[in-house]
Amino acid sequence: MMNNILLAAGSSGGMAQMLPMLLIIVVFYFFMIRPQMKKAKEAKQMRERLAKGDRIVTIGGIHGKITDMDDSTFVIEIESGQKLRIEKTAISSNPQDQLQAPK
Length: 103
Known about the structure:
Elements lengths: L1 H48 L5 E4 L4 E7 L3 E5 L5 E5 L3 E3 L1 H6 L3
Antiparallel strand pairs: 1-2, 1-5, 2-3, 3-4
């Protein structure tokens, strides 16, 4: 009888030790992982909406206008008239989206 009581008390103690770890995981998910996933999803949607003639800014800060598109690359024309081929993932922003964004 005494052994059963000790086993029951020991098992609830283990769960009490796990609770802080579970709370930390939940906090990390809602404050770090989930917002990062949401931001990545929005960036992907922005890249999919781009079309020929749109003005863009690359991650490296190059401003240009899309002249041609492929599955994974864009050809952009920069101010001097030169053309560059860049990866779609190198697009940082679309200035038109920034102008339309609510402040």
